[in-house]
Amino acid sequence: MTLEELTECFERHDGEYGKFERIEKPAHRRPDICAFIMLDAAVVKTCHDGSFGDMVACAEHDEIWLDVMPKELAPVATDELVRDLVRCGVRFPDEGTGLAMFA
To answer: Is the pLDDT of residue 97 over 80?
Structure first.
């Protein structure tokens, strides 16, 4: 999927936001951890030293920004993955800022 298609997919599933109970066989019982596990499985990303960094890239006020960038997710994203990420509370508020969640 392209970055534009990813944006459209997040918008299409906006009505599923926070409806974690609709995920069949979630990877974890907690929505935020479930999202982290799904993103980690979809996008393999290592630091310059070969280690794995934190999933939370930064936090500001009541929002966290995730280390997986949309341009990294787009090529491996599926409609179902995006839908379930939205159900976990993942947002794609702006193409330039990346994936975010409310804390």
So the answer is: no
> Is a pLDDT exceeding 80 seen at residue 96?
no
CA–chain centroid gap for 57, Å, is 12
What tokens appear for 94 in the block? 């702006």
Structure tokens at 98: 């990346």
Using alpha carbons, list the distances in angstroms from residue 58 to 10, 54, 65, 84.
21, 10, 5, 22
Cα gap 24→71, rounded to integer Å = 27
List, for residues 58-82, the tens digit of each pLDDT value: 998 899 999 998 999 999 999 999 9
